[in-house]
Write a structure and sequence with these properties.
Pfam families: OmdA (PF13376)
Oligomer: single chain
Strand content: 5-15%
Structural class: alpha+beta
Helix content: 25-40%
Order of helices and strands: EEHHEE
Number of helices: 2
Strand order of the largest sheet: 1-2
Largest sheet: 2 strands, antiparallel
């Protein structure tokens, strides 16, 4: 379950956010907007099964290093400098 970790001051963070701090999963090569987008994409669904599916997809994509939410990454189809 994705439950939340809460601090003494009442701020809650999902436990999966620590993944972005690890250097061995490829997340450090991702731009900040992708990290933030992944977090909201995982937190937004109401059903736990959907959250778990999004989390599993994110982990697979970070390990592979060539996808971002089902799309090729980095985007090699777009010419550089445009």
């Amino acid at each position: 379950m994705l439950g939340q970790e809460c601090t003494e001051n009442g701020l809650c963070r999902p436990p999966f956010r620590h993944i972005f701090a690890r250097k061995d999963c490829g997340s450090t090569r991702r731009p900040p907007y992708q990290r933030n987008d992944y977090i909201s994409w995982i937190e937004r669904p109401k059903r736990e099964t959907t959250r778990q599916a999004h989390l599993a997809q994110m982990l697979d994509e970070l390990r592979a290093g060539n996808r971002y939410k089902g799309m090729p990454w980095p985007d090699t189809a777009r010419p550089k400098g445009r």
